[in-house]
Amino acid sequence: MNDLRPGSRFDLHLHSTSSDGRFSPEEVLERCARAGLDVIALTDHDFASTLEVGPQLVAGRRLHVVAGAEVSGVHDGTEYHLLVYFPGAIPDGFRDFCRRQCQERAVRYERALSALDLAGPAVDAGARNGDRALTRLHLAHALVDAGVVRDRSQAFAEYLGDSHGTVPRLSLAFTEAIRIARDCGGFTSWAHPPRGAVEAHIDTFVAAGLQGLEGVRPLLTSADRRFYRTVARRHGLYLTGGSDWHGWRDDDPGLFRVHAVEIRDFVDALLAA
Ligand SMILES: [Zn+2]
Ligand SMILES: [Zn+2]
After folding, report:
1. Domain residue spans of the chain
2. Which CATH number fits domain 2-98+170-272: 3.40.50.300, 1.20.1250.20, 2.40.160.40, 3.20.20.140?
3. Ligand 2 centre from 23 Cα, in Å?
4. Which ligand has an atom closest to residue 19 CA?
5. Ligand 2 ion: nearby residues, β-carbon < 5 Å
6. 197-222 pLDDT per residue, tens
7. What is the H or E stretch that residue 123 is in?
């Protein structure tokens, strides 16, 4: 895995049409390669990609694809996201878990559509079968398309928050998500962890098997970065990093890139696996 060399440029948090991203997985890879990224992970919501992993030629450039997913779970009434990475291909056990989560998502999405009194778009057979993940962002788009709201932020603010009760709550506990990912051989990192939640829950999550924090992200202050570094050091966690790019802002991936040196412990762990 010499693509994981110190000078490599990483983005370990990207979304595609397999969940709520704008571009197909293949297009995301092409855009990443053209943008000069060296190592990327597609981390669609509760979705185990079937894309080839490891080093490959994409758009005439060498790109190393790390297998990953972003799993949603609940702790203390709040939803948190868990990034799961695999050193090789995604194992069948984790694939089965993701498929069940996607199937549950389709059920929740359909209930939300009827709670919102939205006619469509209907859930297709693929989504019902767990071949892709439906999310709140899909509901936000449906609300915009139906003319109920003017944009996605209004959709979230007025219809899709937990307090609105339109989207049925998740049943999976975040600590259970960590355990399942670890049992399947995955590396776990808490995605975009809010600082207050880190302070409140880090001991519980580490006890459940959490191994990392996504502490290298766009728009963090240097104090934020210092905070994540300190917590990681104190608990023996590694840092991971990524943009959480979905493609909806008319920007390309690669504007934000993580340097291997910033996530060295994670890279070492992946190399050693
Ligand atoms: Zn997330
Ligand atoms: Zn994400």
Report:
1. 2-98+170-272
2. 3.20.20.140
3. 14
4. 2
5. 70, 244
6. 999 999 999 999 999 999 999 999 99
7. none
